[in-house]
Amino acid sequence: MIVRIMGEGQVEIGSSDIDVLNALDTELEAAIETNDEDVFRSKLHALLEKVRQVGRALPDDSLEPSELILPPADASIEEVREMLGDTGLIPG
User: Which residue range or ranges hold the PspA-associated domain (predicted)?
Assistant: First the structure.
């Protein structure tokens, strides 16, 4: 799966990493629901860091279509809330 982190670039993640990312996504959603800014910030950073860690960075000139777009690390709760789908940021 090709994932774009807004403002950073694209990474390719394997299907075996989706469950771990979904768990972090669930924690992020819970922080958004409770409007807890500190927990939200922590969970957003943890999710993005895990994507960077398990993903393989694609070259900057790569034009692969992104299957998933994640917010930048400095996104607000409201910005991320608007990006949430029925299954959070990470489908599956």
Answer: 1-92
Q: How many domains does the chain have?
A: 1
The Cα 23–Cα 6 span in angstroms is: 21
For tokens 């771990």, name the residue. 20
Residue 91 maps to a domain: no
pTM given for the model: 0.91
Report the side by side order of strands in the sheet with 9-12: 56-57, 9-12, 2-5, 68-70
Residue among 50, 57, 75, 42 at smallest CA distance from 9: 57
Domain holding 7, by residue range, is 2-83
Residue-wise pLDDT for 8-30, tens only, equals 999 999 999 999 999 999 999 99
